[in-house]
Amino acid sequence: MFDYDGSFQSAIAALKRERRYRVFADLERKMGQFPHAFWNSPNGKHDVVFWCSNDYLGMGQHPKVIEAMCAAALRMGAGAGGTRNISGTNRALVELEAELAELHGKESALVFTSGYVSNHTGIATIARLLPDCLILSDALNHNSMIEGVRAAGCAKQIWRHNDLEHLEALLSRAPPDRPKLIVFESLYSMDGDVAPVGAICDLGERYGAMTYLDEVHAVGMYGSRGTGIAERDGVMARIDVIEGTLAKAFGTLGGYIAGALVDAVRSHAPGFIFTTALPPAVAAAATASIAHLKISGAERAGQRAAVAATKAALREAGLPVLATETHIVPVMIGDPDLCKQASDLLLEEHGIYVQPINYPTVPRGTERLRITPTPAHDARLVGQLADALVAVWRKLDLPLGGDYQPAEQRAHTVAAGG
Q1: What digits encode the pLDDT tens for the residues 237-271?
Q2: Helix (H, G, I), strand (E, B) or coil at 171
Q3: CB-based contacts of 225: which residues, under 8 Å, 6+ apart?
Q4: CA separation (Å) from 262 to 5, 121, 122?
């Protein structure tokens, strides 16, 4: 008889041997005190400070967002009650989709249960609706995009990360009348670098390709209304499909796409048709967050100041910070075991929560701590972080003394998905 348990245990043992086994910290955010939280450890409850949250602006605890969520729950109840086709299209969700369409200047928007689902389902559905579609995917696209490309079942080509010459070479070889879909991100969340969105639009227009842009780590954060990198760069109208999340800078839950083809996706996407809709309370909270960030620049300004202060403090301390132009602050370690040890020491000895980022999220040899300052990280917290990191670096005998210098050619095979 087949040893089912043994097979699963062997898979876990392999992760542990490679120092890739992940342990989740039991965390309890303190309402009104972000980024402070409780860590429910095996030895009791301890105060900690988040330094790696994707709630980039702290909107998950903004009074307007909490008030909207509570009011909607009291008015309409907790759950959505069904799929969008079967009683799940609640009024709060309709208003959220209208808000998102207006935010991105598109004809309509469609909300999914997560950003992963919106990418996976959106890319796969769009490509399947185009006969003999060729998908051109950036080598460092997120796993949700990679899996969406695979699920499409279409021909695919991987272009070197942000390499316009390589993208153009691939486009130029395809027949002019063949449907082509360029899928890429505006801001890559591990290295913190930004795509040349306008130049990619130029190539798409020149070679008759559609453009699909993931703005997950940019919505709420960039542009005069927090619409993203495409708005900041003045090219939003040139993008065919914009995908985003409600779970990062907007502080709630869900994903979405915006564009003229929403009705076709709505009518054909299994990941939309066969899943329960977002609850009205979550939809109302997301709408409140988007509406606030469209008119308030205070959160973005505060976050930019905190990011600049953090980068300066860590560099002054001699920590190996990967230079970025964005709010992502990677502190490089390059070893999975040491990366996990550093994270554990920060949590257990300094009350600082920063998760280790190991393979397969990043290529082997580029393991890191990914720090994301928010408007709530003041000068005192920044100083505490720098001191704690230096203490951990010394305890683990890690090198201090300057910015991280990446190898000339970083491996992209993992992100490329084969």
Answers
A1: 999 999 999 999 999 999 999 999 999 999 999 99
A2: helix
A3: 103, 231, 293, 294, 295
A4: 44, 12, 9
Please compute the mean of the pLDDT values over residues 20-40 and round it to a whole number: 93
340 is catalytic: no
Amino acid identity, position 309:
A
The greatest distance separating any two alpha carbons of the chain, rounded to the nearest whole angstrom, comes to 64
* E strand segments, 301-401: 329-332, 352-353, 356-357, 368-371
pLDDT grade for 403, boundaries at 50, 70 and 90: low
Give the contacts of 110 (CB within 8 A, at least 6 positions apart).
97, 118, 256, 257, 258, 262, 265, 266, 272
pLDDT at 210: 98
Active-site entry in 248, 294, 340, 395: 248
The string over 86-105, giving b where at least 16 C-beta atoms fall within 10 Å of a residue's C-beta and e elsewhere, is eebebebbebbbebbbbbbe
Q: d(Cα 65, Cα 286) in Å, to the nearest integer? A: 7
The reported pLDDT for the residue numbered 402 is 61
Structure tokens at 16: 């542990």
**Angstrom distances, CA of residue 395 to CA of 334, 338, 341, 383, 405:** 16, 11, 10, 19, 22
Task: Give the DSSP letter string of 15-79.
Answer: HHHTT-------EEE-TTSTTEEEEEETTEEEEEEESS-S-TT-GGG-HHHHHHHHHHHHHH-SS
The amino acid that residue 368 corresponds to is: R
- pLDDT tens column, 292-321: 999 999 999 999 999 999 999 999 999 999
Neighbours of 267 (CB within 10 A): 11
Question: How far apart are alpha carbons 349 and 344 in whole angstroms?
Answer: 8
Q: Which residues pair with 242 in a beta bridge?
A: 213, 258
Cα–Cα–Cα angle for 417, 217, 100, rounded to 5 degrees: 115
Rounded to whole angstroms, how far apart are CA atoms 5 and 288?
Answer: 47
Contact 186, 197 (CB under 8 A): yes
